[in-house]
Each structure stands twice: as structure tokens, then as C-alpha cells.
Write a structure and sequence with these properties.
4-stranded antiparallel beta sheet; 40% strand; mainly beta
Length: 138
């Protein structure tokens, strides 16, 4: 996959052999106040292969320790987007959170996808499972 790095950081990499995501690092310094959000630049531009997408996910450590997460939960980078990867962080914590250049702020996962076409029908097959939102138990 092609990447342009206009940041002060090294390229994203997997932290362990079993990692699904590569860490994305901040290319700017910012303080995010409680209940505020900020679009943090990474200085990275990627060319995603045909039939793939990029998924940007929160880092669990930042979420549980500081209340820092992505405002849109999971971000999607389409294969035809080649602009800078920016991370929409939100501070759900109670104190200001400082982001420094080089801080790991999100994860990037590259996944295959399939496109489908809808076939409009009057009914769909019934299954045993018709409930939702907790109907299978605690």
C-alpha cells in the first residue's frame, strides 16, 4: 500500500505480531478540554487498494484511562480518499487531555469489503431470532 509521510513521525506499524491495527500518531500538539472535540492531523496520506477500506478505531488505553475516544466511534477511509488522515478525538473525561506530536491516538485497520446490490422484495425469510437489543440475555 502506498503512503506519503509528511509528519514528524515514523510510519504506522503493528506493535506486536498479533496486532490487527497499526497505531496512528499525532502530528500536532493540542489540548482537548472535557466534552470538547478536535480533528487531529497525522500528516499521513495513503492510497488504499481497490476493494479495501481503512477503519480508524480508538485506542482502548486512551479510552479507559483518559476518556479519549473517536467522536464517530469507528471512522471509514474509502479507497478513493487520498487526503490527510485526521482523527476526530473527543474528551469524555473530566480533565483537559494533552496530545503531543508522536502520541499514539488511534488505530488503522485495512479490510477487504464487498459491494452488494439490493433486490427489493415484499417479504424476507423469517428466522427464530426476531428480537434485538438484548433479547439473547445478559
Amino acid at each position: 500500500m502506498k503512503i506519503v509521510n509528511r509528519s514528524l513521525n515514523e510510519l504506522p506499524k503493528y506493535q506486536t505480531k498479533g496486532s490487527a491495527g497499526m497505531d496512528l500518531m499525532s502530528n500536532e500538539k493540542v489540548v482537548i478540554l472535557p466534552m470538547d472535540r478536535y480533528l487531529v492531523g497525522t500528516g499521513l496520506f495513503i492510497q488504499i487498494p481497490f476493494g479495501h477500506e481503512g477503519q480508524v478505531r480508538a485506542r482502548s488505553g486512551n479510552a479507559i484511562k483518559h476518556g479519549i475516544t473517536l467522536i464517530n466511534a469507528v471512522g471509514t477511509i474509502d479507497e478513493d480518499y487520498t487526503g490527510e488522515i485526521k482523527i476526530p478525538l473527543v474528551n469524555l473525561g473530566s480533565i483537559p487531555f494533552e496530545v503531543n506530536i508522536g502520541d499514539r491516538i488511534a488505530q488503522l485497520i485495512i479490510s477487504r469489503y464487498e459491494k452488494i446490490e439490493f433486490e427489493e422484495v415484499c417479504e424476507i425469510e423469517k428466522t427464530e431470532r426476531i428480537g434485538g437489543f438484548g433479547h439473547t440475555g445478559k
